[in-house]
Amino acid sequence: MNPTFKLSKQPQENTKKRFYFNCSANAFIIFMACYYGLVINIPFMHGAFSAITSLHTFSWLFLFSVPLLLICLLIIFFSVVSIRGILKPINYLLLVLSSAALYGSLNYGVVFDYSMIQNTVETDSSEALSYLNLQLVGFLLLFAALPVFILSRIKINCARPYKEVISRLKLLLASFALIALVVVNFYADYAATGRNNRILKKEIIPFQYLSSGYKYARDQLLYSDIEFKNIDTTPTLASPSTTRVTVIVVGETARAENFSYQGYERNTNQYTQKHNVTYFDNVSSCGTATAVSVPCMFSLQTHANFSRLDSDNQQNVIDLIQQAGTDVLWVDNNSGCKNVCTRVPTINIDTKASELCDGKYCFDEALLAPLKHKLANLSQANTVIVLHMMGSHGPTYFKRYPEKFKQFSPTCDRSDIQNCSAEELVNTYDNTIAYSDFINAQVIEQLKALPANIDKQLLYVSDHGESLGENGAYLHGFPYAFAPTAQTHVPLYIWADEHNQRITAKCLNNLNSTLAQSHDAIFHTLLSLTGVASKTYQTSEDLLASCQTINHSETKI
Ligand SMILES: [Zn+2]
Hints:
Alkaline Phosphatase, subunit A, eight-stranded mixed beta sheet, three-stranded mixed beta sheet, 17 helices, 42% helix, 12% strand, elongated, disordered N terminus, disordered C terminus, binds zinc ion, PEA_transferase, Phosphoethanolamine transferase, membrane
């Protein structure tokens, strides 16, 4: 084993003068392992060093064993994937993906676990483009394009297959020996540090996104044809003669702590305030990303046992409400309903159709026209309309509200939000919260305009929260167990008209809205709000249980 890099001063004829460097395959593997270990994994190294040096006592040898261990693991990894013939294409791909993961980690503190991979795959092109800015382009040129170019100029000299295998085995043996040495000496330190800093291992590039990507692809390809499960085939309307209109507003990226209802010092709820909504101040989300939270909140599954694969293949509460005889409409101004609306009539807001849209996005006011049209053409006694907002989706918060709704300034009018001041960022975000509040107030106004004999009600809930630079964290999508509360504490409120026969002002006032609740309650609360009796209903999970006059217990399991 003699890994060496050699500059080709006079390129050989058979290399067509294309290569500037020659190196052995082993030298290439060691070089890549060092590059990934010491450059691409800077966030992991920083986290590991911080965790170790913050201990009361720590050994310097343990500290320096971390990069050694990582490089050895990477040597094993690159030995496996550096297959003759496709060595370069594989490494081009890894360099591009890894640089993108490094950018996300350095700038937003995100890690690419399963739900982040899912969220990334389900992101539409407009959403993806909103991350594009000069800093990202410069970063990718430096960390993806340049390494790819350099790699294209390296000629990797592979020996005869037999010799190559022997040489590779020696390299692997040396790596395993070093790993064994580290483990034998520092096993207890690694176990303790790992246990107290579980997020660290999720930060290692490329292992994090490759293992999550593999699991996601496996679920999509292998298990996509699982049988559809009906959780209740006989949901019914508890009182079919009652005329009722329910609007469910699914918020996007609204975090509770920036709601004045939550005690926030700024008035970000000035529009709905006059409508007397009942706010629940202790609600946690199911996930930290849309692709998890939206399907989860409508699913009978809970945060504890949620599987997107299962939720995609069984009835959700919207299905049950429709099946009971309700006229359901889903109106989407986001990147889709994440398979929740697959079996109900759906309107996707056309981003090119009105002055409220810029061709890629629409302000949430675009949801109001289809709502108005639906309310003017009610066809059944029980109607449910879901409005899926664009809300406070980042990083381009400044594109979420029209200029006249710029209540707080100066704002951060760019997508590389980490380069804005904290004040600018929070101002911009608060403008999105206030604008969403305006939209919800408009929805309530539309409902109020309906005849008095119709029960009118609204439930608003956000899918997840957002980090706005606190402790260097931005956006959302962190692994749930490590996510800051800002990403999991969500606003939820319910409004009912003053003549509402079941959800009366008295019962709303008597609700205990400070109890710890979660998205798990949405499924059951929507059943009771819309007056649907189902064997799946659980009183203990219903936020409005004390308001009910209908008796679900007869049909309960
Ligand atoms: Zn979301």
